[in-house]
Specification:
By secondary structure, the protein is an alpha+beta fold. It has one domain: Aspartate Aminotransferase, domain 1. The chain is built from 6 helices and 5 strands; from the N terminus they run H-H-E-E-E-E-H-H-E-H-H. Helix 2 packs parallel to helix 5.
Length: about 150
């Protein structure tokens, strides 16, 4: 479910109470752990956490690099973690740590789906957010682009 909200407050206001409360709690965890220089914005119809174009303008689509995002979808909520998408080692470590919490692991390539906060290990989400600096994320991105070019 893509939102046309232009601000985070407008996005949150359009959510049902239970979802808004859950999204707000995950948002607080993300903001508490967000590395310096990354910003919160509305992009791609969801709350996005990005490296501003002023810091890294060489993106393939002219939009800021998205490090993480938070969204309320039709049948679930999701936190998107680009670091687990971009790095197989980070993805494997994240899955292992997630499963060790005993919570149900429901994830795609970068999204972690949850129906309520009981399914989401907030401490682990905070660790992943805090675990990659702007410089590291830029390097991961550039390495991925370079690998794709070599595989063509």
């Amino acid at each position: 479910m893509r939102s046309d909200a232009e601000t985070v407050d407008a996005y949150l206001a359009e959510l049902p109470d239970a979802r808004r409360q859950a999204i707000e709690k995950v948002r607080r965890v993300i903001l508490e752990h967000l590395p310096e220089g990354m910003v919160e914005a509305m992009n791609w119809g969801m709350i996005a956490y990005e490296i501003p174009l002023e810091r890294y303008p060489r993106t393939y689509n002219g939009k800021p690099l998205m490090v993480a995002a938070l969204a309320s979808q039709k049948n679930h909520m999701a936190v998107y973690l680009s670091a687990i998408y971009a790095s197989p080692q980070t993805a494997a470590a994240f899955e292992t740590a997630y499963r060790a919490t005993g919570k149900k692991y429901d994830a795609g390539k970068s999204c972690v789906r949850f129906k309520d906060l009981e399914q989401l290990p907030l401490d682990l989400i905070g660790e992943v957010i805090a675990g990659t600096s702007i410089e590291e994320f830029i390097q991961i991105t550039e390495d991925a682009v370079s690998a794709r070019k070599q595989n063509k």
